[in-house]
Amino acid sequence: MRRFLVVGHRANTNGDFRLDDLPGTGGRMDIIAMSVSSALFLSHGLRKDVEVWLVLLGGVPRTVKIIGPEARYLFPDERNIAGMIRTNLLRYREGKRGTPGIYVSDMDFREAVESASADSVLFYLEEDGENIRFAEIRENSTFILGDSTDLTPEEEEIVEKIGARRISLGRKSLHTYQAIAITNYELDRREESGTGGP
Ligand SMILES: C[S@@+](CC[C@H](N)C(=O)[O-])C[C@H]1O[C@@H](n2cnc3c(N)ncnc32)[C@H](O)[C@@H]1O
Asked: Which of 125, 155, 175 to mutate to test the pocket of ligand 1 (most atoms within 8 A of CB)?
C-alpha cells in the first residue's frame, strides 16, 4: 500500500466553499484536488494500491481519507474531486454516511501522522532530503507533503519525532501534485524492474 498524506493548511473544512473558487473560498482546495488526481488516477482508472489522506486545517481539523480501491463516483478532474470532498465534509457535519471509499474524521495533523505510522513507514518529502532513488522504501509507505506552503516548524517537529525520513525529488520546489506524480513514477519503476531500486 502506498499512501500520500497531504496537509491543506488553509483548506476549508466546513464544506461551504464554492466549486468555482477552489483557491479562494476553498483555501487552496485546487491543490488538494489536483494532488488526489495525481495520487490515484491512471489513464484508464484508479490505482488499486494507493490511498490519500488529506489533513485539512483551515477550520476545525478534519482528515479525509480516500481509499483508491474502494472509491466510487470519483473522476480525475479537479472539480469532481473537490465536489466529492465537499459532499463528504457536509455529510460528516450532518452525521450522515459518506460516499464509498471516502472517510472523514476529526483527526488533526499529529493524530493522522501517528495513525499512519501504525501500519506504514513514514517519509517526509522535502527538497533537502535524501535522493529518493537511493532511499530504501518498503511496500507499506506513507509520503507526507505540504500544500502551497511547507510543513510548519511544529509539524516538522512531529514528523521528526516520529522518525519520518526526509526524501527529495531534487532541489527544485515542485507543486504538491507534481511531487506526487514523480513519486508514483519512481515507485512504479522500482516495481517494474523488480529490484526495489531505481
Ligand atoms: C509547493 S511545495 C511547498 C513550498 C515550497 N517548498 C517552496 O519553497 O516554494 C509543496 C510540497 O511539495 C513537496 N515538494 C516540493 N518540491 C519537492 C522536492 N523537490 N522534493 C521533495 N518534495 C518536494 C514538499 O512536501 C512541499 O511541502
From this structure: 125
Q: Is residue 198 part of a domain?
A: no
Q: Give the residue ranges of DSSP H helices in the chain.
A: 29-40, 78-93, 109-117, 153-161, 176-193
- Residue 16 maps to which CATH number? 3.40.1280.10
pLDDT digits 0-9 by tens, 126-164: 999 999 999 999 889 999 999 999 999 999 999 999 999
Q: For 28-60, how does the pLDDT look when each residue is reduced to its tens digit (9 = 90+)?
A: 999 999 999 999 999 988 999 999 999 999 999
Domain contains 109: yes
pLDDT digits (tens, 9 = 90+) for 82-118: 999 999 999 999 999 999 999 999 999 999 999 999 9
Structurally, the chain folds into a number of domains equal to 1
What contacts 181, CB < 8 A, 6 or more positions away? 38
- CA-CA distance, 187 to 10, in Å (whole number)? 29
Owning domain of residue 125: 2-193
Backbone φ, ψ for residue 196 (5° rounding): 75, 0
128 close to ligand 1 (CB < 6 Angstrom): no
Beta bridge partners of 50: 2
Residue closest to 175 by CA, chosen among 143, 152, 148, 150: 148
